[in-house]
């Protein structure tokens, strides 16, 4: 195998050794490893900030809503210390990837060729780029709506049973009061919906508020509510998922394309924030050295790794 090209900083490149799609935990994990190894790369993200889904939003009443249990600050710290910011392009959406030609086309029409690509774009998108959408039809997903609710006063005693509730509209309820302004408390609920259903946000909010009240966890009316829908859908395990993923992965990695992370990898049990970060680094090693990817395939038998060069 030829050695990967070394860094060649300069203007916007026509080609790179590694194209990294997404500046969330997966993409930053890949970038940090590439930086450490001194290999040429470019990270692009359609969003205008780094961190991916791990982000916090502060509303006009001073409540902060932090999904994915993170403020986003840790990803800025990682990017500042471990990634070359000149190799990071925000606001650049990859519209299409020609996997056979190893070329990505951006929404503004520019193109870039690469030798390897580590992508955290949703897997169904990657499959449509690969002309293999049918391979993903057996994968199942759900949508997530995060609902924040802020209240005046102290955290009520009833919140403890609401947090442990088994029959509630939320899949998870988190006490986020430490991010509420002084003299207030707050919760963040995550509601799951079948992948294709439209979400009635107003109804979802009132179901959360109603359930909190029923648990004695909302003795006063909410002073603020906040919602954020996570779309496209989040993957969920199914019986034949890993077998399907191995087939898909063999097809994509044979063309130097590593689809990883929460939405790119479809193994949520391996894609919490730390797992996603590790997956990014390991995808780089797998691409250049054929190393097995322990983080991505955790809990599943690993496929035979072949050179993707
Ligand atoms: C509701 C919710 C709650 C969660 N809670 C937790 C938690 O408590 N703890 C925990 O550890 N994890 C949690 N997670 C999981 C965590 O968010 C993920 O593990 C992590 O965000 C995965 O990182 P990623 O880089 O793979 O993907 P993402 O964070 O989704 O980042 C992918 C990036 O790729 C970019 N992108 C996608 N397509 C393109 C394209 N075509 N062109 C350019 N850029 C593109 C996106 O803009 C995005 O920035 C939660 C996730 C959700 C949805």
From TrEMBL:
The protein's matches in SUPFAM superfamilies, at most eight in alphabetical order, are given as: FAD/NAD(P)-binding domain
Annotated organism of origin: Gryllotalpicola daejeonensis
What is this protein called in UniProt?
FAD-binding protein
Give the InterPro entries listed for this entry. Answer: FAD/NAD-bd_sf
Transmembrane region positions?
none
């Amino acid at each position: 195998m030829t050695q990967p090209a070394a860094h060649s900083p300069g203007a916007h490149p026509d080609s790179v050794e590694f194209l990294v799609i997404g500046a969330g935990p997966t993409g930053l994990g890949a970038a940090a490893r590439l930086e450490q190894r001194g290999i040429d790369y470019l990270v692009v993200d359609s969003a205008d900030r780094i961190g991916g889904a791990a982000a916090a939003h502060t509303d006009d009443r001073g409540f902060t809503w932090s999904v994915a249990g993170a403020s986003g600050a840790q990803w800025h710290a990682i990017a500042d210390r471990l990634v070359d910011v000149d190799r990071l392009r925000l606001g650049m959406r990859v519209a299409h990837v020609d996997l056979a030609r190893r070329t990505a086309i951006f929404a503004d029409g520019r193109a870039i060729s690469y030798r390897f690509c580590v992508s955290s774009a949703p897997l169904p998108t990657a499959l449509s780029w690969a002309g293999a959408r049918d391979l993903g039809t057996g994968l199942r997903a759900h949508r997530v709506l995060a609902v924040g609710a802020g209240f005046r006063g102290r955290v009520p005693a009833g919140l403890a049973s609401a947090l442990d509730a088994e029959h509630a509209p939320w899949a998870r309820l988190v006490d986020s009061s430490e991010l509420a302004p002084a003299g207030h408390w707050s919760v963040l609920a995550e509601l799951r919906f079948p992948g294709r259903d439209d979400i009635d946000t107003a109804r979802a909010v009132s179901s959360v508020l109603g359930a909190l009240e029923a648990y004695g966890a909302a003795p006063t009316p909410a002073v603020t509510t906040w919602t954020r829908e996570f779309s496209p859908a989040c993957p969920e395990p199914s019986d034949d998922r890993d077998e399907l993923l191995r087939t898909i992965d063999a097809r994509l990695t044979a063309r130097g394309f590593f689809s990883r992370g929460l939405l790119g990898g479809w193994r949520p049990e391996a894609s919490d924030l730390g797992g996603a970060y590790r997956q990014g680094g390991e995808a780089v090693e797998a691409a250049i050295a054929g190393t097995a990817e322990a983080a991505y395939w955790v809990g599943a038998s690993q496929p035979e790794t072949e050179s993707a060069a």
